[in-house]
Specification:
Order of helices and strands: EEEEEEEEEHHEHHEEEEHEEH
Strand content: 25-35%
Shape: rod-shaped
Helix content: 10-25%
Length: 287
């Protein structure tokens, strides 16, 4: 893995000594007999740039702190082209600190020696931004959602039961779940069998199982157990959703347990065979 670049500072012109660091240069002294009183000290200039692109960094903060005299330092900002100019500073050891928004700060020891000038090239590395973690939650749509069950339920047409409501009723047969719904009657079965579901007027409604219409008259209790159901919908003829509307009597939409939930018992072979028989009988009658 490639190491992340760090800040760099270099003395381009003599007049400064970076501590520590190999290859640093001492300042060249101007002859004292030609140095005026207002030129005493070291003139410090520099340029602050982006290490990755060499782009100048304006408004970067530069602080030169005298290690022995807190009043003897200097602070300022870079101009529009990333350049700063400090007044002549007395020869001494300083700490130079450079900061810019979005970049790692730089701090280094700097020794100003002699009475010349020091030009510094300072390169700041872009800071690694720490972002708040993003949590992505993926939820698989359930069978009832895919079938439009909840959309129809919100419209208020017909009557429906979810899996939770089915479990609360603790019914023995599927017809026991719906016998109290308005417009629905159940003729009791015999010999321990479930009853026959009828709508108002005594007609038997169509049965659509997981979106597939069962053509022959079907007794729900012969093909489904309460534990098989994920949801059930009952519609009279006038309220049946258009895609399922064929009978003026009404329609029962039954939705079996979602295999992805991992609970509930699969259909028994007996129920699968019964459902297949009803489908075959409907096909023969239609032919």
């Amino acid at each position: 893995m490639q190491a992340r670049p760090s800040n760099r500072i270099a003395a381009l012109l003599v007049g400064a000594l970076l501590i520590p660091g190999p290859g640093a240069l001492e300042a060249q002294e101007e002859p004292r007999d030609t140095l005026r009183s207002d030129q005493e000290g070291v003139l410090v200039r520099g340029r602050v740039v982006d290490l990755s692109s060499s782009r100048p960094l304006p408004a970067a903060s530069v602080v030169l702190e005298h290690l022995e005299d807190p009043e003897g330092g200097w602070s300022g900002l870079t101009d529009s082209v990333g350049v700063f100019r400090a007044p002549r500073l007395p020869p001494a050891e300083y700490t130079i600190r450079v900061e810019a928004l979005g970049f790692d700060p730089l701090e280094h020891r700097l020794a100003l020696a002699g009475y010349g000038s020091a030009d510094l090239q300072i390169e700041l590395a872009p800071a690694a931004l720490e972002l708040e973690p993003i949590v992505v939650v993926s939820r698989r749509r359930t069978r009832l959602e895919n079938a439009g069950f909840y959309e129809r339920r919100e419209r208020g047409f017909g009557h429906s039961l979810t899996r939770e409501e089915i479990e609360e009723r603790q019914a023995m047969f599927v017809t026991d779940l719906v016998r109290t719904m308005p417009g629905v009657t159940v003729t009791p079965g015999t010999m321990g069998r479930g009853g026959v579901l009828r709508m108002r007027g005594g007609c038997e409604p169509d049965v659509v199982l997981d979106g597939v219409r069962l053509s022959a008259p079907v007794r729900l209790d012969d093909i489904l157990s309460v534990n098989d159901l994920e949801g059930i919908e009952i519609y009279s003829g006038s309220t049946t959703p258009m895609q399922y509307s064929r009978s003026s009597c009404g329609t029962v939409l039954a939705w079996t347990r979602d295999p992805g939930t991992g609970d509930g018992k699969p259909w028994s072979w007996k129920r699968v065979g019964a459902a297949a028989g009803f489908l075959l009988l409907g096909w023969l009658l239609a032919g």
